[in-house]
Amino acid sequence: MKFGLRVRGGLAAAFIMFAVPVALPLASVVGSSPAAAQTVNSIEVVGNRRVELETIRSYFKPGPGGVLDAGRVDDGLKALIETGLFSDVRINRQGGRLIVSVVENPVIGRVAFEGNKKVKDEQLQAEVQSKPRGTLSKPMVQSDAQRIAEIYRRSGRYDVRVTPEFIEQPNNRVDLIFTIEEGAKTGVKSIEFVGNTAFSSYRLKDVIKTRETNLLSFLGSGDVYDPDRVEADRDLIRRFYLKNGYADVQVVAALSEYDPERKGFMVTFKIEEGQQYRVGSVDFQSSIANFDANTLRGYSRVGVGSLYNVENVEKSVEEMQIEASRRGYAFAVVRPRGDRNFEAHTVSVVFAVDEGPRTYIERINIRGNTRTRDYVIRREFDISEGDAYNRALVDRAERRLKNLDFFKDVKITTEPGSSSDRVVLNVLLEEKSTGDFSISGGYSTTDGALAEVSISERNFLGRGLFAKASVTYGQFARGYSLSFVEPYLLDYRVALGLDLYQRQQLANNFISYGTKTLGFSPRLGFQLREDLSLQLRYSIYRQEISLPTTLSDCNNIAAGTMIGNRFVPFNPTPAFINANGGVDPTGNNGLGCFANGEASLPVRQELANGKTLTSALGYTLNYNTLDNNKNPTDGLLVDFKQDFAGVGGDVSYLKTAFDAKYFTPLVSDIVSIVHLQGGILNKIGNTQLRMLDHFQMGPNLVRGFAPNGIGPRDINPFGTQDALGGTKYWGASLELQMPFWFLPKETGLKGAVYADAGGLWGYQGPTSWAQTGEVNVAGCRAPTRNPNNAGTCLGLQFNDQNTVRTSVGVGLVWASPFGPLRFDYAIPLTKGQFDRTQEFRFGGGTSF
What we know:
Mean pLDDT: 82
Distance between the termini: 40 Å
Largest sheet: 16 strands, antiparallel, barrel
Shape: elongated
Strand order of the largest sheet: 18-19-20-21-22-23-24-27-28-29-30-32-33-35-36-37
């Protein structure tokens, strides 16, 4: 760093030196030895203005017998310089006198920063040690300049320049100005891997957090060079290999080199993979009396013949150790041992259960939480003060705290307690922002343009509560929702959620009617295991249908008739039946209500019934072993849910649905996805199933079909031919996703090819107006009038065949900075006679 002198206003203050001689008599020295000849019997101080005389003289303390020899004078001189109060200190001897000449450092009037746009003054003020009204110390100023530069380097600006400057003021005061040239962000221009043969560089770039600079890097910070992040990436690569059977892997080095021409860093990871191992055998041993280690076999996640996976070994150790503690062996320690067979490429795993040291937790210290309450942190521990120390439970607590997503960093360290059998746990936390405000927008071929404004807080009031409010407004979908979650109900690990919502779906190209739903749903969530969870819920919602007048204006009901719970005072369209008793769809009688179509019978019945209340109990069982919830490449995700409606309300049914996705990597970064789904709707008692309660399927079952494009449909030629839904469905899909290797990894683009098959059938909704009492002497509401007999009614005309629909297609998946986007083009191979297709489909959204 360089120091500059700058004068403002054309005036420069000068240092004025005042000499204040002071004589300090010392004890007389007896004798004429050489040492006595170098002693001092008086001290004079010259140049001090603010520092007291006695303070300066105190640094020159006589020794035994009152002798101030040369050694003590030298020590005093060094100590005086180290105070930082003086820019210059000189010592002169004149006979028996010691003359101390000092030049005091100026006092700092103010500390200011110029040129800083990316870092606020408050953050810089907190870092520098030079403070207003403090003494100016040039070494300290130089250290402050280095601290400021380090702040910028941590944010990726390695071209930063920090120049301290001084503006002299009267009365030996000075203003300290740090002039900052921030420079541009220093990005990572390339990431290379050396020595990797089992996994491609493209795949390994998914594992690490550091990213290469690209055109969209301004939307994130993953491409900014951070040496700490690069070092953490070494461990991520190592863990990835250990998870996939490479027990001997070593990430030898992570080399970072700055390229002045490209103005960025080149990062290279050097890897020694070793060979891949499978599990040869799994054994259990115990050195604890009366403890059979084989009883822990059910807690092992390691199977013979499977790839050797260190994560599974660690999880097995944790669960075994916790189970041993539950059985009364609080100090039991499970230690895994792996014996490699280099020829067979296998590892024999042995879980040894031994008696650990009898250590107790004396105290748990929590540090760094300025907002989060202590109890929010402590409840993540399954142990407390006074309990036996169990490392597995401590590791689990650390993992839980990280999963809360309240903190940037979580570390739990130990230190000795007050005795040899005591240990103190220190929980070191660094909090981060937990609130989100987002404006989301998107477009899909189903819902059209859509926008959402939401505000959420993951750590509401520092109590670990979750709260969210959102408003959605779109071309065909609108509504709002309020959500609240208490993760620890009554201090138990049970999550209570409350949801209040209103949704409005408008008529569009795929449905002729609109729906409006207002509902409330409390729910309870239980984490049965790390990969298994259960949710219990109750839902109560009111739903109603709306229709354009043109789609429900054909009727021949007499004035004064009750239609469902609606009274018709007059008949707006007296008849569509001609003089001969037949249908007159051409409107020869001047009415012509069929000319613009007419909604299907079940739709108009829902309209006639008005608002319907549904009260239902349900549960969802979720099994999740995915390696990554956002971009999975391996694992299984299964959802099984059931809802029973009929706990009060106007409808009753039992609805069951199953959905399973299995991800597995193949070769060259190709991931296969097998998707199976199915469902069934059962009628309960004599209550008629509504059309709205049926399953509606389209591209969510078989791509290449329009929304509500599959299954039973009203085929009356005079109506809108609405989809009616079904009570049974099944679906199967096989998809291969692969990257575009010729594109940079950071573009986030992947291609997909897939084949889908499925079916929907079993409509059990209303089929005749006779069930609603709307048949009268005049006849039937359109379009169920029998044209051949004016006095009779036709039932609902619909198709309901268990036809297998199939399709093949290609897709483009983009993990864009604007949110996940997907484009699909699918060609139906087999379909039902009245199914509707939609070969191209697009959907996506963003938050900004």
